[in-house]
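Re: your question from the hallway

Yes, I did run it. Sequences:
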Amino acid sequence: MAKFPDSSSYEPMSSLFEEYKNRSKFSGTIAVVGFGKMGALHSTILKMLNQKNRVVVVDESKLVRTAGSRFLKGVGFYGAVDKMLAKESPDVAYVTTPASSHYDLVTSLAPSVESIFVEKPPTRDSAQLTRLIGQLGNRSINMVGLQKRFALPFRHLKQLVDAGAFGTLETIEASFESGDFLTETTRFSKLGRGCLLDVGIHTIDLISWIFGQVTVSTADARSIYTPLDDSVDAVLRERHGAVINLKVTWSSKNVRWPSARIRISGSEGAVDACEDSLLLTPRGKEGRFISKPDYYRDLTAVNLGDPEYTLEDMHFLSCITGGIAPETSLQACEATMKLIDEIYSVVQLGNKDSGRR
Amino acid sequence: MATRILVGDNPFIGVSHLSSGKGVDEERVATNDQMERVLKAALDAGATGFTFTTHPKILDLFNHLEGKSGDILDRLDYYILTPYAYEYVRQANLRGTVDMAWSILRTLGVSGVGSMLLSMDSIPAHFIRRELEPFLEILPKNRVKAVLLHEVLTEPIIAFGSWKLLRRLGQDVTKETGISFGIETRNAGYLGPSMSDLSAAASYVMTPLNPLGYQMAPSKEACEKVVSALGKETKIIAMNTLASGASTLEESARYLSDMKDSLYAVTTASVNPDRISGNVRTLLEALQGGTSFDKEQR
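Structure:
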């Protein structure tokens, strides 16, 4: 059994930055499809990472194109993918539109663009993802925007679990909470799936990544502000039998920022990890708190949003220059999407009420 | 030389870059009465200003202070960070970015793309002025020193070199409000090649400076170089000076005292009146060049 980690065990995490910096020498034309908040965020990070990067934007909104072309120097704006591809030859495309359009957009970009990043969730369900992977084949380098895997406290957590630092796992609490939807909205009706897919995918991906195969025991969902799942509680089991209590909501009044969290209790101690920090508590001893400043110091190449956005972009660019598959490739996300489908198959969706099903 | 200590508002509005849980706890403690005690303690210890976000809770604090007999409002200088970006991010999640943008534009009198084209260049300043208005109605006019553009808008401007936009925005904001204009950025190290463009557009730059280098992108060294050069012509306000609590006050004070010739002001924040008082005194001593720890520990 591994020795319970000491407080210096986060030190090697900083090597990730150096590795990405050394590998990500990419420069080229990047097409950003959908210039909402995520499109603007990635565009800014990618331009700051290398001023030689040329950004072109595809957005169907005339407002976005008119304002963007007036205010953003050197950026080309187009109203549709085919119009952009008729004039540009992008090396990379970022698809940052609402999820319901991802499949069609990635499919239309794939014949012309070698490397494609698609924001989470990549598709509506695992069947659609499998079809998309089939269409792309092996020729392209693709990546899904599951940036929580690049948050250093979660990377540290995975290292610790892989090393068996907590002994026999007893209970696991995994959650994603945000307060995004506290009034009625139909924004996700077209997609037909709610919080479990849209934000829960982060935590479910962390579960799949850290614990491997898990099974679904029970799942309940509640509709509060949308006709879809606004809150989901599920009981899962990891392969050695430890229970994973999963809670996902985008209608929490208790949090200011969206946050994923994983708490593990094992025979040798406990850990509480979120994007910001990791608290290690050896059994019977005082806890040790490792904070965001400890993890990141001055190593974040671009500081916009959370550091994991820059890390995921650097990872993607370094994979392109190195010709290797990203950690969160479409293929690597199949297990996550299948687990989401499995949870949805247990809960019944769509009927608006406030009761538990 | 920095002799101004400004109180920051992050703990008042639940922002902690150390942990979100800490932010939630601090926000709960920060009632109007508690925030008043903090500001008074900071003023009594030698602070001269308050840098805050255009957050509804801060507006409520000012309304609370306006109705009281004390003179806290009149004793502070103000450095206003705007817009309150988080609320717009939440609105974008709820409605989509384009719907949110149209709803903002309609409140500014823009009804369609045609009318937007006619008034395009002045829209950003109108938006900023509208964000500021409720605060400017309360604050003593001659004490509002700067309007600082939030990083959510500043960083794309830096990335894409949109200096013409920034210059126009700064000119319009100053023309409409009579207040100096500046930016807040967490990527100051990227300003190196554009310092003359920036200086022409912004009189103030607020940016993280701390011994750990936390939030100093792309690196502590790059940010320090820019601050050293830029500080000769632009007023630099150091923020996140304690690296969100990961640096000690003494470490931070020593670090900032080494940079004092380049700094205009230094921020510090707490929800605890005793702590803010201690922070202000220690930072002031360090920046004025005569701290006991400075002599002992150098």
